[in-house]
Amino acid sequence: MEFSKGFKWGVSTSAYQIEGAALEDGKGLSIWDMKCRQPGLVFENQTGEITCDHYHRYKEDVKIMKDLGIQVYRMSISWPRVLPQGVGEINPKGVDFYNRLIDELLKHNIEPFITMFHWDYPQKLYEKGGWLNPDSSNWFAEYVRVLMDNYSDRVKNWITLNEPQAFVRWGHYELNDASGIKPAFSETLLAAHNVLLSHGKAVQTVRQYSKQDAIVGYAPVGDLYVPYDEDVATDVEAAKKETFSIKPLTVFNSIWWMDPIFNGNYPEEGRKLYGEDMPEYSDEDMKIISSPIDYLGLNMYSAKHVSQDKDGNVIEMPREPGHFYTHMDSPTEPKVLYWGSKWFYDRYKKPIIITENGMPNMDCVSADGCVHDPQRIEFLRRYLTSLKKACKEGVDVRGYFQWSFMDNFEWSHGFSKRFGLVYVDYTTRQRIIKDSGYWYKDVIRTNGKIL
Ligand code: GCO
């Protein structure tokens, strides 16, 4: 069986992780530029200052995508490259870079899917309180307007935010501050609310100012659970319940970030649990947040597998010895693409796009000059087969973006983790297509028939 006609096969990246040129052509500083300057926060004090140097090598990269048959490319725009202060004055050279990149993609018949914000928050706005500032959602909307004015004539597909759970929990606060001071949980919830409001205002800005009918979505993440034994109904029930659960003192869950968007309200269970830590908000806020979007993007990598005991308690099951783990010590769990797509589709009735999925591996160049990565091929084969099962059962999955097109700066792990289908030599910046890249090319060519 093939995937549905029109299913889109893609790859993902993000600006800070691949572009480099961190201090070039008028770009403003982002919180990640600052974070990388603080000793001890990133593996071996590495930085994204040059990384893959995609800023200068984008033509070569687009050419490689073309050679691999990539149909859609999920990239992000660096907010401070376009608006160095976050708001106000526009940087024409920054705007121009994305114009050239978009044109290059279109010239090669690759459709851009643009993430508006993938963590590289403008330092100037961070100094004003960032997402805690009551104006933060208006700042974001102003930036989105600039994107619409400059790119929406050619770009149709937008993703507002990447993994708000992660940047609210780690990126924006905890890891950025060498003092190690953690914000109060009430502040985390307030930031989360402002982030959701920013998403809503972004959607409204797209609808109002896009020069063509746009397709807009969102790419959250969250803890995921799958049944230990798929044939045992109580295991399935336990995993589903946990996937839709909210735990105390953390916003790293799915539904806190999805119910408000799709149902116009925070989940009741969470409101009760968070109690006095909840921010104040209005009905008008919830209306903005729930502005209709076109699909739900899911970043899915791993999951815990759970069962249920006789009393109905959910129990996390241990992995069998020798289980297939990734280089980031997370267990591979292909079932997650099946159950995750299915459950979120059932709950929200919106088309699903897998906005991220992929594997960190220990890749190196062999004596023959090639990069052999059978583990990644096996990882992707298992995960895509599981996704295929969901599609076969009627889950409306519209596309799949592999993370990542090429090896890149993996945030606090620096360059120590390689996720790419394309290997990058960080000394020469040479690119080498890995075996998995050629394999993925065949998957795309056959629309998944070879799986
Ligand atoms: C995330 C981000 C990506 C990561 C990828 C691998 O999920 O953390 O969206 O930027 O690089 O997920 O960890």
Task: Tell me roughly what share of residues is in helical segments.
Answer: 25-40%
- How is the main sheet built? 8 strands, parallel, barrel
Question: Spans with pLDDT under 50 lasting ≥5 residues?
Answer: none
Kindly state the number of beta strands: 13
Q: Tell me the β content.
A: 5-15%
Mean pLDDT: 96
* Widest β-sheet, arrangement of strands: 1-2-3-4-5-7-10-11
The number of distinct structural domains comes to 1
Shape: globular
Attached small molecules: D-gluconic acid
* CATH fold naming: TIM Barrel
Distance between the termini: 9 Å
* Level-1 CATH class name: Alpha Beta
Element layout with pairings:
Blueprint: E1 8-12, H1 15-18, H2 31-35, H3 54-68, E2 72-76, H4 79-82, H5 92-107, E3 111-117, H6 123-126, H7 136-151, E4 157-162, H8 164-171, H9 185-209, E5 215-219, E6 225-227, H10 233-243, H11 259-263, H12 268-274, H13 283-289, E7 295-299, E8 304-308, E9 314-316, H14 335-348, E10 352-356, H15 374-392, E11 397-403, E12 422-424, E13 431-433, H16 435-445
Parallel strand pairs: 1-2, 1-11, 2-3, 3-4, 4-5, 5-7, 6-8, 7-10, 10-11
Antiparallel strand pairs: 8-9, 12-13
Bound molecules: D-gluconic acid.
Task: Give a verbal description of the structure.
- The protein has 451 residues and is α/β, with parallel strands linked by helices.
- It has a single domain, classed as TIM Barrel (Alpha-Beta Barrel).
- Helix content is 38%, strand content 14%.
- Strand 10, helix 15 and strand 11 form a beta-alpha-beta unit.
- The protein is globular.
- It starts with 7 loop residues before the first strand and ends in a 6-residue tail after the last helix.
- It binds D-gluconic acid (GCO).
